[in-house]
Amino acid sequence: MINLKFITLFFFGLFFTNIGFSQSDSVFNKTYKDTVILTGTEIPAYSATKKKAGKAAVLSALLPGSGQAYNEKYWKIPLVYSALGTAAFLYNYNNKRYKIYLLGYQQRIDPDLDETIFSEDIDTDVILQYKNNSRRNRDLSAVIFIFVYTLNIIDAVVDAELSDFDVSEDLSLKVKPEIMPLYGKPDKNSVGLTLCLNFK
Predict the structure, then answer these.
(1) How many CB atoms lie within 10 A of CB 79?
(2) Residue pLDDT, tens place only, 146-162
(3) pLDDT per position as a tens digit, 35-53
């Protein structure tokens, strides 16, 4: 049977162990009304460069790249228009090819049409295959265009949300291996990784 008193004392000792080993310093705990304590660090002021994610999303939706301009990430604007322009070019190119092969296929299967844009040496099944390939590539180009357009909006929103994020050199993250003693077994060690994040 579980001893309730033992469990209560165990958790009480577990959570309050640090208090038992600590000692308050009366010198540092005293506060005086006329005392100013200088810590050597400055309190960071509120960042006035915080961007509005909603505004960035609306701007990017109305005009791709304008959200990046609002976030002052001007180097991303050529990337946005290059991706959108490539997708639009591929869509137009494949759409033209699709219409040509569609017309040629219709001329082959419709006996009332005497004219043909393809010679008799080209098989009808080959024309049908080219038509289907062109249609698939056209649809894929449209999907890529929509994806890039959506990604443009998401990128602007993320940049706006992180516009006041501190990326100064005062922040540092160090990952290093370390030999640590096993809990409850001081004569045995284990190897692990420690993450150290410094705010200077």
Answers:
(1) 15
(2) 999 999 999 999 988 88
(3) 455 555 554 444 556 788 8
- State the pTM of this model: 0.58
Burial of 34 (0-12, 13-18, 19+ CB in 10 A): exposed
Sequence spans of domains, the chain:
53-161
Q: What residue type is assigned to position 195 of the chain?
A: L
Residue owning tokens 């040509």: 100
Paired with 177 in beta bridges are 193
DSSP per position, 4-20: HHHHHHHHHHHHTHHHH
Do 141 and 94 meet the contact criterion of CB atoms below 8 Å apart? yes
User: How far apart, in Å, do the first and last CA atoms of the chain sit?
Assistant: 53
Confidence of residue 184 (pLDDT cuts 50, 70, 90): low
Beta strands in the chain (DSSP E): 171-182, 185-199
Which H or E element spans position 179?
Answer: strand 171-182
Helix, strand, or coil (residue 184): coil
User: Which residue bears the tokens 């602007």?
Assistant: 156
